[in-house]
Amino acid sequence: MSKGVLVNRLSGLYLGSGTCLESGIPSGIDQKVAATELDVRIETVLGDAQADPRHHGGPDRVLHHFPREHYGQYRRWDMMAQFKDAPAMGENISTVGLDENQVYIGDIIAIGDVELQVTQPRSPCFKLNHQFGHKEFAYAMQTSGLCGWFYRVLKPGHIFHDNGVSLIERRSDISVREAMAIYFASEFDASAYDRLASCEGLASSWVNSLQRRLATQKMEDWQMRLFGPQAD
């Protein structure tokens, strides 16, 4: 994709400072509300909170972008116990017309006067199962790749609802969708791991995980992350 406008106008902006308990575990996924603007700092969005800083937030995951049309697909797959729409994924940015096949790891993105870098796909966890009332929602996200992506902040500023999304520079040849497929493939693939780990801009947690796999020649167990403490 050439440089230039990817989306003319955002569908929504969201933030939230509240948290709640999901099966006794703190979560902020269902606490986001619509906002007219986001005050984006280098490591945070003013007024936005993360209930679990170890697995969410931090400099590589300051903003979560989720395509709004994915809600419709999950509804068509009958993955929701009741109707839910943005920002039920806990996203900060919602758009229509931009997905994981069009956005690449390391992409430098401009939204308003803010410059961002794409760092990783969203890694689904069992909290999504509780959020949408389906015990395999997280697994469906992992296998489908309809996950959204995270940004680190290169240049802070303000994002407004009527801003567009533009690509400034492409830094890798691995899309968010391909990164998801490589990272969560069922078979060990050292060459694919090495290729993904070498992507400029990839989140440090993903780089570390891939390097650990290469060193140990083993993949981590995803059962707890996908299905929670009650998983067999």
UniProtKB/TrEMBL annotation:
One of its GO terms (molecular function) is pyridoxal phosphate binding. Residues 30-168 form the MOSC domain. It comes from the Bacteria. This is MOSC domain-containing protein. Transmembrane segments: none annotated.
